[in-house]
Design goal:
Length: 373
Amino acid sequence: MAQHIGVLTSGGDCPGLNAAIRGLGKAAREHFGMRVVGFLNGFRGLALDQTVELDGQMLSGILTDGGTILGTSRDKPHRMNIGGKETDMTDAIVENYQKHHLDALVCIGGGGTQKNALKLVERGLNVVTLPKTIDNDISLTDRTFGFDTALQIATEAIDRLHSTATSHERVIVLEVMGHRAGWLALEAGIAGGADVVLLPEIPYDVSKIADAIRRRTQGGKRFSIVVVAEGAMSASDARVVDELVKERDLADSKKARSEAKEKLRKFHDEHVGHTIRLTKSLEALTGQESRLTILGHLQRGGTPSAADRVFATWLGTRCAEVLHERNYGVMLGLAGNALRLAPLHEVAGNTRLVPLDHPLIASARLVGTSFGD
Ligand code: F6P
């Protein structure tokens, strides 16, 4: 009997989503004779039964397109805004899965999607996931698709900032995405030859950054490029976060836990914009004119790089094989040069941060990059 497969894309979009949908859809339909239905706007479409038939025409001509033909959202199955009210839509999702006689559901997404997908596995659905995000922070995979394209965009931005920083003899701070992980800042910083790279994993001291810039000036280099991950923090802010996390984890009641979680959320909300404060401090400490560029969603838009197209297509086609084998409850990840099947319960809830002993941190230090520590 031909299998019926559902597919959705969830969380922030990234380049390569359409390549993955195409790889999965073509292999599933044309090689294994499966029927493939797409759910629109992430888990919302599955909850509200908003679908599109992924036929040959829908899957054609999308390989190079950015974004996702299915649309996406950050909706969670168990906490969805329905008519202004937070609603648990898990039952509706299970009903729609059954209504469409699905044999399995493919969820393409980042860290949040892996957690949501696991919840559906626990409700008895057959789920396989693919790892996408420009943050590269999903555990049990060496790479996520979308990262390579974002890395190229961030690197090109650093290249372009170099010439204007040199002409004006300025310090230019570039904020890149990455959520709570520093992969994008680290690799773009190395590729673009940034002078200072600030990662969430290495809390910084602003006076050490200023020292590094002053040393460059004394050595005759009258400009500096500082690449900052959006989640990077000063050592004192990092201490506050550690305390709040401890408070949350040690909370002895549901109320105390949700209060501590709220404090943490507020702290992270207020942290947005920290690069504006950092740029002003650097100008004051170094006496050198300083400017800030926030790259933002440019990093997620547009056509995927060749490497992301290849990786996303490979994940999609391998996913069709895994579905054919009726292997469920797994995420496809990259391990060295091969694809692995990682148990979803081991992936969900575990963020892959840059290890402090990562060889690329050592390599950057060896070419004179400062991490502000
Ligand atoms: O997870 C991908 C990501 O682009 C992060 O790097 C960033 O913190 C976040 O999404 C931005 O989310 P939004 O698109 O909701 O502003």
